[in-house]
Amino acid sequence: MKHRGYYGGFGGAFLPEILIPTFDELVSVFESAKTDPGFRNQYETLMAQYSGRPTPLTFAANLTRHFDGAKIYIKREDLNHTGAHKANNVMGQGLLVKKMGKTRVIAETGAGQHGVACATMAAKFGFDCTIYMGEKDVMRQRPNVFWMEQLGATVVPVTDGTKILKDAINQAFRDWVTNMDTTHYVLGTACGPHPFPEMVAWFQSIIGIEAKQQILDLEGRLPDRVYACVGGGSNALGLFAGFLDDPVELVGVEAGGKGIDTGFHAARLSSTDAGAGIAQGYKTYFLQDDDGQMKETHSISAGLDYVGVSPILAHMHETKTARFESATDAEVVDALKLTMRSEGIIPALESAHAFAGAFREAPTLSRDQIIIINQSGRGDKDIFTVADVLNDPEWKTFIQTKAAQYHA
Ligand SMILES: Cc1ncc(COP(=O)(O)O)c(C=O)c1O
């Protein structure tokens, strides 16, 4: 272990000996990129030309009227190429992979958005690409698996453990240990050993830097609160980055699943169910039992059921520089329905947690207050889950007809 990348008592890099030279190389490439204005310029140009940045900040006039409280703005990360904020991190790491001269990338994915973004980046830069995905998530996010494969990636379903994101991360680390010379592990969120939390947050800071300028241009003032959903923490840290030194309340919304009391959730910071521990190469709050065994998590969204959380957010929680709430699956579906019907916007189920958290509080604020909700991704990928929950009869008929065609 080396004493680096700490945020208060969280973070660090708890690595097997064999990975230390690989991490040293990554730290050094990232440190030089971070201090090179030419690199940030190259990154921002790539994001403008390939991913359509800056993403808009949309005034949600109908939702604002509906709640009759704070003015509601939505930061539209769903409009990135591949439909989520994940592209910001992936394209940045892709540039670093080129600098390191490696030829293969691997990644874990939960909702599949990071996997699709990674497969896209690999196709563009000419890297071989393998994506590890828990078998349960493969089932939940089949459309994204299909596109990853069409983009040229190999998708490996992970059948270990609980068959979700944490198991996919373990498998990706196993691969990396045996292929370090050629391969870079494109971790998809602000977790894991140093420098990943800092590096991913640095690439995602593009969200908050843009949002701050956009709200100043539109309203001539800062927002009162900003909301983001929290899986590993990358879109939240990205949005928060624009407002860290400002009198703006930062609110993270975790997966409340079936309700905190039921135990079926993934609320690491907003419940008292998690404890500090060390796993997957870093120290943070994990949902674990008294023996330190990772617990099963639950969320309607495949991207928010990670058992740990960014050490940067764990520190912000302890220092009270950000506030953490949770939203239940049921609240999330209501928020999704309302946003679709009133604004014509389809948030990803992950993002809909941020909407649900904001909707709870918007009516308690006054009309001259402003909030920003980060729409981390678009909801198209969730069609199977949402159609199930809404029990849509025509969708069922469509699936049955398709199934009959395949049997024919
Ligand atoms: C659309 C979307 N939003 C949010 C997340 C959660 O990740 P993070 O907390 O790193 O932003 C995911 C993860 O897969 C996602 O796909």
Automatic annotation (TrEMBL):
GO terms for molecular function: tryptophan synthase activity. Keywords: Amino-acid biosynthesis, Aromatic amino acid biosynthesis, Lyase, Pyridoxal phosphate, Tryptophan biosynthesis. Gene3D superfamilies: 3.40.50.1100. It catalyses: (1S,2R)-1-C-(indol-3-yl)glycerol 3-phosphate + L-serine = D-glyceraldehyde 3-phosphate + L-tryptophan + H2O. Its EC number is 4.2.1.20. Residues 51-373 form the Tryptophan synthase beta chain-like PALP domain. One of its GO terms (cellular component) is cytoplasm. The modification N6-(pyridoxal phosphate)lysine is found at residue 86. Pfam families: PALP. Its cofactor is pyridoxal 5'-phosphate. The keyword DNA repair does not apply. It is an enzyme of class 4 (lyase). Pathway: Amino-acid biosynthesis; L-tryptophan biosynthesis; L-tryptophan from chorismate: step 5/5. HAMAP family: Trp_synth_beta (MF_00133). The beta subunit is responsible for the synthesis of L-tryptophan from indole and L-serine. PANTHER family: TRYPTOPHAN SYNTHASE (PTHR48077:SF3), TRYPTOPHAN SYNTHASE-RELATED (PTHR48077). Tetramer of two alpha and two beta chains. NCBIfam families: trpB. Belongs to the TrpB family. This is Tryptophan synthase beta chain. It comes from Desulfotignum phosphitoxidans DSM 13687. The gene is trpB.
